[in-house]
């Protein structure tokens, strides 16, 4: 039944175009059904043009606890699972 829910979420994400998707590196998998993902984004300053890096740590839902530290994964924004967790892991990229 859990596999069906995971498949349904993936189908909904692929159908909707407004859902945010990010790719990041798993840096912690110590919590139950939760992984911490580090995303890196490079932007240019609007006035001066200098390139700078923005690093964020995001907690994402991992139903089966199948992703480990060092995995590169794709996550999408979903309904809130808890106070800090409103992202879900879709798939492993590498």
Describe this structure in words.
This protein is 15% helix and 47% strand. By secondary structure, the chain is mainly beta. The protein has a single domain, classed as OB fold (Dihydrolipoamide Acetyltransferase, E2P) (Beta Barrel). A 5-stranded mixed β-barrel has the order 1-2-3-5-4. A hairpin with a 7-residue loop joins strand 4 and strand 5. The longest helix has 14 residues, at 2-15. The model has no long low-confidence stretch (mean pLDDT 90).
Under CATH, the topology can be stated as OB fold (Dihydrolipoamide Acetyltransferase, E2P)
* Level-1 CATH class name: Mainly Beta
Largest sheet: 5 strands, mixed, barrel
Mean pLDDT: 90
Shape: globular
Q: Give the amount of beta strand, in percent.
A: over 45%
| Secondary structure tally: strands | 5
As residue ranges, the low-confidence spans are: none
Radius of gyration: 15 Å
Summarize, please:
By secondary structure, the protein is mainly beta.
Question: Which keywords apply here?
Answer:
94 residues, mainly beta, OB fold (Dihydrolipoamide Acetyltransferase, E2P), five-stranded mixed β-barrel, 1 helix, 5 strands, 15% helix, globular
Secondary structure elements and pairings:
Layout: H1 2-15, E1 21-28, E2 34-44, E3 51-61, E4 72-77, E5 85-92
Parallel strand pairs: 3-5
Antiparallel strand pairs: 1-2, 1-4, 2-3, 4-5
């Amino acid at each position: 039944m859990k596999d069906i829910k995971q498949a349904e979420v993936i189908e909904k994400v692929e159908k909707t175009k407004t859902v945010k998707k990010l790719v990041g590196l798993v840096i912690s998998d110590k919590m139950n059904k939760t992984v911490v993902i580090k995303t890196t984004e490079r932007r240019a300053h609007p006035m001066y043009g200098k390139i700078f890096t923005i690093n964020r740590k995001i907690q994402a839902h991992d139903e089966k606890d199948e992703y480990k530290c060092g995995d590169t994964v794709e996550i999408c924004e979903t309904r809130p699972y808890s106070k800090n967790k409103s992202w879900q892991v879709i798939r492993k990229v590498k």
